[in-house]
Amino acid sequence: MGYYLDTEGNSQPSNCKICTEGKYCPQEGLAVPADDCQQGFYCPEGQVTATPGNFTCPEGHFCITGRGTPEPCPSGTYQNTPGEWTCKECPAGFYCNATYGPVVLYGTYICPMGFYCPNGTEYAEAYPCPTGTFNNLTGIDHEDDCTPCTGGMACDSQGLVTPPGPCSAGYFCRVGATTTTPSQGADADICPAGYYCLEGTDKPIACPEGTFSPDDGLMMVEECLNCTAGYFCNKTALTAVSGPCIPGYYCVEGSTRPDNAICPEGHYCGWATFDPSPCPNGTFSNDTGLETVDQCLPCNPGYYCEGLGNVVPTAECDPGYYCPSSANVAKFIICPAGKHCPQGSAAPQDCLPGTYSNYEGAAECTPCPEGYYCIPELVVEGDASTSYTPCPQGFFCPNGTGLDWQSCPAGTYGAATKLTKAEDCTPCDGGKFCQGVNLTEPSGSCWLAGDTAYPLGCNPGYYNDLPKQASCKDCPEGYYCYSNTTDYQPNECPPGFYCMQNTPDPFAYACPPGTFNSYSTQKNDSACVPCTPGYYCEGFNNSAPTGPCDEGYYCSGGAYDNPPSANGGECQASNFCPEASPAEVPCTAGYYCGSNGLANVTGPCDPGFYCPEGSDDADEEDCPVGHYCPLGSDLPTPCSNGTYNPTTKKDAFDDCLPCDGGSYCNEVGADAITGQCSEGN
Questions:
Q1: Is residue 388 part of a domain?
Q2: What is the CATH number of the domain that holds 665?
Q3: Where is average pLDDT lowest: 85-94, 486-495, 578-587?
Q4: Which residues contact 218 (CB under 8 A, 6 or more apart)?
C-alpha cells in the first residue's frame, strides 16, 4: 500500500512508484493512485487513505480535494479550526493580514484608529477614513462610522486620527471640511460677504453694526469696512450701507443711525452729510439741526459775520461804516458824507439837529459851526456842502444850532447872514426904534413926548410895552430883556440856560458842567438836569448831552468829561462797554472779556471750555464729562444718545465715543455706558 505501478514487465519491488502527492493508494497492486485526497486533509506522497489523520489540514490553512500540502489562508481570511477546506472571512472591525503568516485568530488584529474594516479586510490600513473625516476609535467597520471633521477644523487627508489643523482665516468649516480653504457650500466654504472668519471659525461672524462688507473671504473684524461717512449701518452682517444720513444730521465714518449726530451750530447738513457744511460768509446760525444753507441766518443789521461757520455775529460794524443785513467784514460800506455811522450801524444815520458831518467815514457828528444851522432835512446824502446852511437874517446861530435859530433881540436887528451871537446883531440906529425880535432892519423912527427931550431906554433886565410910561417893568422869570426891550415874550430863555427875574441877556445863567437843559423859558437852576446816563455834558450851557461816553467806559449820569473822571469810569474785566454805555455790560455768554477798557468782547471761549455770562478768561470753565464744548460755547453740549464721554475738556462731537460693543447708552450727556445688552441683543 502506498504505492502504485503504471508499467509492465517490472521485476523488483523497487520498481513500484510512491503514491502521488494529493492522492492516496489504499491497497497493493494498483496501477494508478486510487483517488484524490479528501478535502480537509492533505496527502503527501505515499498516503494509503483519503483522510490521513496525521495530515489533517492545520489551523490557518485550508485543504481542498487533492491537495498534497495545506494552502495558507489568504489575507482577509482566517481559520481557527483544523481539517477545513475553506477559510473564514475576516469579521468587520478586524483585519486579517497573512503577509507574514496565515491568521489563525483575528482577535488581536482590531481595526486601528483612522481606518475602518468591513468584512474581509486584508490589511490594517486598507480602508482609511476619507478626507473630511477622522476616527479616534478602534474596531469600526464602516465608512459611515468615521467622524465628520469637527467645526473649525479641516481634515485634508485620509486616515486621520484627529483633525490635523484649523480652518484657514477667511473660511468657515462648519462640518466635514476636506481642506483648510474649502468650497463645500453650507458645510464649509469661503467666508461670505458681510461676515469675517478668524482662523478656526466654524460659523461666520457677522460684521458688527457700524460696518459692512461687500467682499467675501474676510479674515478679521478689522477688515469689515467702517460705514461710509455720510451713511449709516444699523444692522450686523451688512453687505452694503443701510442708507444715507438724514438732513439736519451728519454721520461720521462708522455711524449706526441715520440721525447719528445733530448738525452743530453754525453749520447745515443735507442728505448724506459726513462733514457739516459751514454757514457761508455773511451768515450765522445759533441753532442746531439745519438742513439747508437757506436756513443760515443773514448777519444781523449793524453786525458783520466774517468767515465760515459763525455761531453768532463776529462783532458790531466798525465806526464810520455801516453794515446792512449779510455784511461779512467790519468795514462793509463807508458812511457817506452828510451822515454818521457809530459803531454797530445798520444804515447811515441822520445827524441830530445842531450837528453835522461833512466827510465820508464819520463815526459821529460834530456841533454845527457858529454862523450856520444844521438840520437833517436839508442834507443830501453824499453831498458834504449840504450838511450846514448859513444862519438867516434877523437871527444868530451859535455853535450847535439846528432849527433853534436865536432871534436878534428887541432893540437890535440883523441885516446880515451867518451871525454867531447876540452881540453880532446891530443895535437899533440912533433916532430909530426896533420893536420885536428877529428884525432885519429898524422898525421906524423915534418921536418926542413928555417932559424929556428924548425917550429913555429901559435898562437890561427890564422892559416897557406901553407908551408914555415913567418907568420900566421887571423882566419876568423864563425870559431875558436887553436894553430898550418893548416886548419880552419873544425873548424866551434859550435851552442850556435859565433866566431868573430881571435877566439882562440870554447867556447870563448857564447850566453848569455835568448838566443840560433842553427846554426854553426855564426859570432857575433846577431846570439843569444831570447828564443822561451813557453821555457826558462838557462845559457850560449844554442844551443836550455833548456826546456819547467813549467806548470802553461808562457814564452813570451827571458825567462832565470824557472819559469820565466822576459819575462813571473805565469798564472792568469780565465786562464790556460799547459807546454810550450807562453801565458795564456783563460779558456775553460764550465769550470772554479779558481786560479793562473793552468796547466789545475779547473773543470766543476756547474749544474744550465754556464761558457763562461775565467770563474774563477764554478757559473760564472746563467742559465736563459727558459733554463737548466747541469754540464759543456758553453751555456744554451733551453727547447724543448712543455715545458717551468719560473725560473733560472735549471740544467736538467726534470726542463722544460710540457705545461699546455689547453695551448700550440710552441717555444724553453720558460719561459712561448705561449697561450691558441682554443676551441675544
A1: no
A2: 2.10.50
A3: 486-495
A4: 170, 191, 195, 196, 197, 207, 224
